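I am writing to request your help with a piece of structural work I have in hand. I set the record out below, with my sincere thanks for your time.
___
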Amino acid sequence: MGTTPTEVLAFPSIKAIVRDNGTAEVVVAGNSRVVPDGDTLQDLRNNALALVVGEAQTLQRPVRVQIEDPEGHGELIVHPDNKIESVSYEPRPARRRAQAPETTPETVAPAIIEAVPVAAPEPIAPTAQPAVEETAAAVDRQPWPPTPAEPEANTDLQATPEVTGANGQRITDAELPQAAVAAPEAPLTRRSLKETSFLVSAPVLEPATQGWRGTLTRLGFRMDPSLEELSEREDIRTVSQHWPGPRTIAVVNRKGGANKTPTVVMLSAILARYSGAATVAWDNNESQGTLGWRTEKGAHNRSVLDLIDSSTELLSPSTNAAEIAKFVHHQTADKFDVLRSDENEEGDHEVTAEEVDIAHQVLTRYYRLVVMDSGNTARAANWRRMIDHTNQLVVPVTAIEDRAEAARLTLQTLESRGGHDAELARNAVVIVSESTDAKRSMTGDALKRAKAEAQRIADGFEPFVRAVVRIPYDPALVNGPIRYEALQPATQRAWLAAAAAVAKGF
């Protein structure tokens, strides 16, 4: 039996927006995907439908899509086999001249449009998303609902209005310039109080608190802060901000041992400590990850699978915000929560793309910041769906050649996919940590070589991403639970700079 329109889930929320300026986008669960350019509005519609068909094929079920374009708006049902049903459509009222009577547009009755595959549209530039290339040929040039008829011009309103002078005599067109010159100038008015303020907007520079300058300040000699202290204050200000709407950070590198989990913990701790925003670190491994092993455990054993099973309850308007504590593990010192991956050794469940959508929808209801740890397979469904939800990409790498090469290949993979993925790669923050294989006993030439290698790798990434930050070696990051307060002061300062670089991408 087929699926009726009323049985098709409205989750995830999908919108196809076509604009009269020649651009279009498909928004899936709040994440925008750029639609490749077309020569006409119809080409843009076809390319947008191709993206939606790809989404339906990924979910393996029909999806609902809200359509908006210059000619009208409505709702479609798009099936994985390329069948498209029109649920409703309302053409936009035509723009009319002043005082023209308005009419109510008729609504097109629901109809089923059977798609007949035809030749694919013009080839899309290499930067376009592969999903469009794979599905565009399957999308028929569907007639987007009809264009409202253009109303006839109202010629009565085009007549030139009659202009008279002060004596009541009509002024001709030739006399208008002279009449305008002869008109008396309007008297000057007093300045509005809205344009005046007695408040001083200049920032107040607080005295130094660090180093010898801070010591002299505490002794009664007010000293200005050093450049280093001013830089630290600016980084603190950056990570302390609140942004409208939730933000998602993905920490990725296809090579294990690249410092992904310590990076997730450090970014979550700093953002939560300074901003006070509700922050969650989510272990988005296909099956079992290590984030739970490097963080505090709560009084339960629940994981992301339990959260997904309870998503209907958690998304209910009547559910209290504190209910999320049943599924996450709070970090008492660093003020963020952890959503663990499934740690059942006998389980074989792999998180799907749709489950990532569900978990992300739940978490962004309860948290402002979501920091996602990841597995090592860039082709996995949950990895690719994580990228769809990402606002800022972070690529950690230890100063070892194979880790650096894996990081480069990860960025190259995303760049080759075009669209949103490529933009994330260009705007990425690379965090280069000195080798965790170093020992505390390393001295002299060995330490110099480790630092030089970290600098070489950092310089190599510099031209290709938005920011590169170096982190010194710290034994507190090597084994066991990770705590911000356990780090050396220089390491804390470096991670603050890294978090500030990430926050600037919001």
Residues 50 and 136 are 5 Å apart (CA to CA). Residues 41-59 form the longest helix (19 residues).
